[in-house]
Specification:
TIM Barrel
């Protein structure tokens, strides 16, 4: 294994500069290092954070996960690496069983060869297979399913990696679905839902502990109607993720949710679609026309259709709202890692993977390191 030195690093929450040494994929030393250590990268003036983890992303750079081939997924991975993401869950919108089988096979193949300079796919996220049609947002209700007992077994699975799904517990068989997902080791995340409190409590008891894109595609908070939002805010054992693009959620409400719930319970996501990285324009996505104007998406039905941000954009927004680098690291790395049960990533510690991102004073990515290897270096672009 080759040892790589990242010198003069300013780790979030640590006052003085230090050195980080990776041996192969793992961090083996944190502290001042003397003598030569293989490749060396001077990180003077840069903030070093754990690599970002995006558990909800549909695409980027003109590539949609649902219809992508291996090269397309790798292209998304390169885009993510340029934006500080080191791990991600390719996220599927509701589709035909044949499409699911095809794309799962593609993700499997991509995960076997993702040694290129890309963010590392670590699983898959099925969004909205079991959603409430009245809360479908940009999803396609013609592909929604009900749970009668066998449908989880029918969903194609990767050979290895995380399996997550977003579901509405009020759909037919929804509470039983939560129980079966949990039994089979899936992350059962509540979303696209207008479930009442009793149903939410039953889903929680069945193993659902997380909410997808908080505030969006769920009933809101009212002083006489707690709603899904109020239930999540008042249940200390529930976590949620949120789209910090300033479009899906007003910045004031974003700050309110994070401060009220507690930083340790919030994960940032991009929920980006294939138009991410492409600028404004008109795009054919999910068999309909989606427009992007000033960074805001809209489909033909008038709904917001995902975002066009990266996790880096989300991190910048949270910094602009006054959240510290330590807090942002929890939301962009540590909490997503905990959510997906990835104990080897999400923080900068000896023995963990050397998945790191180095940001300059303006919050731009200068280096992205995946498994001890520099996969993006803005200084040589």
């Amino acid at each position: 294994m080759s040892r790589t030195l990242f010198s003069n690093a300013r780790i979030a929450g640590v006052d003085k500069e230090t050195d980080i040494v990776a041996d192969g994929e793992l961090i083996v030393e944190i502290g001042r290092v003397t003598g030569a250590v293989g490749d060396s990268f001077d990180c003077s003036g840069l903030a070093i954070l754990p690599g970002f983890i995006d558990v909800h992303i549909h695409g980027a750079m003109g590539v949609d996960v649902n219809v992508a081939d291996v090269d397309g997924l790798l292209e998304i991975g390169k885009f993510l690496a340029r934006n500080g993401v080191t791990s991600w869950l390719p996220t599927l919108v509701p589709d035909s069983d044949e499409s699911y089988a095809r794309v799962i096979a593609v993700i499997d193949r991509m995960m076997e060869i993702q040694e290129e300079p890309v963010a590392r796919a670590v699983g898959v996220h099925y969004e909205g297979v079991f959603a409430n049609e009245k809360m479908c947002g940009a999803l396609r209700p013609q592909f929604f399913k009900k749970f009668t007992g066998s449908e989880v077994n029918d969903l194609p699975r990767l050979k290895r990696g995380v399996h997550m799904t977003t579901f509405a517990p009020e759909v037919e068989g929804g509470v039983g679905l939560a129980k079966e997902l949990t039994r089979q080791g899936w992350i059962a995340s509540i979303g696209h839902t207008k479930a009442d409190i009793d149903t939410l409590d039953q889903a929680f008891a069945a193993g659902a502990r997380h909410l997808t894109h908080f505030y969006n595609a769920m009933t809101g908070l009212h002083h006489r109607d707690v709603g899904v939002v109020g239930w999540a805010l008042t249940n200390p054992d529930i976590t949620f993720d949120v789209i910090a693009d300033g479009v899906h959620v007003h910045p004031k409400m974003l700050e309110f949710a994070c401060r009220t719930k507690g930083i340790e319970n919030v994960s940032l996501i991009s929920d980006s679609i294939s138009a991410a990285g492409m600028g404004d324009g008109e795009f054919e996505i999910w068999e309909e026309r989606i427009s992007v104007v000033d960074g805001r998406t809209k489909n033909e039905r008038g709904s917001i259709a995902g975002s066009v941000i990266s996790m880096l954009d989300a991190v910048k927004r949270m910094r602009s709202l006054g959240f510290s680098d330590v807090e942002v690291s929890r939301m962009a790395s540590g909490n997503p890692a905990r959510l997906i049960g990835a104990n080897d990533i999400g923080s900068i510690e000896i023995g963990k993977r050397a998945d790191l991102v180095a940001l300059d004073h303006e919050g731009n990515v200068r280096l992205t390191i995946v498994g001890g290897r520099v996969v993006y270096d803005a200084r040589i672009i």
